[in-house]
Request: fold
Amino acid sequence: MFVGIGLDSNEYDRPPLLFKELYKRARADGFKLTAHCDVTQKDTHEHIRQVVEELGGTGAERVDHGLDAAERSELVEKIRERGVGMTLCEFLSSSYYDFLKHAYLSKISKHLSKMSKELRS
Reply:
């Protein structure tokens, strides 16, 4: 049984609202919504905002990744107000992604800590 739809992959120059009609249809059909907003992507803050506020006409229930929201207090507040879930996953362990583990580990740790504190307050 399917309960939701999500957007995944590289969102560089592919904002969530590029698929707004699909998401509206999914919302009308009763599906839960999520979208991938990867860390440090071009326009990541705008993508997170689109997912939280506009996807499906009313915003999604979940943002996949989206740690960059911690850099903008207004995004953290919207996530908190709307009760939007945030998902995280470990980086892939293949050698292709090894550089990510080192390049972004400290930034992700900082974002996680800040977002966790702000969401609890």
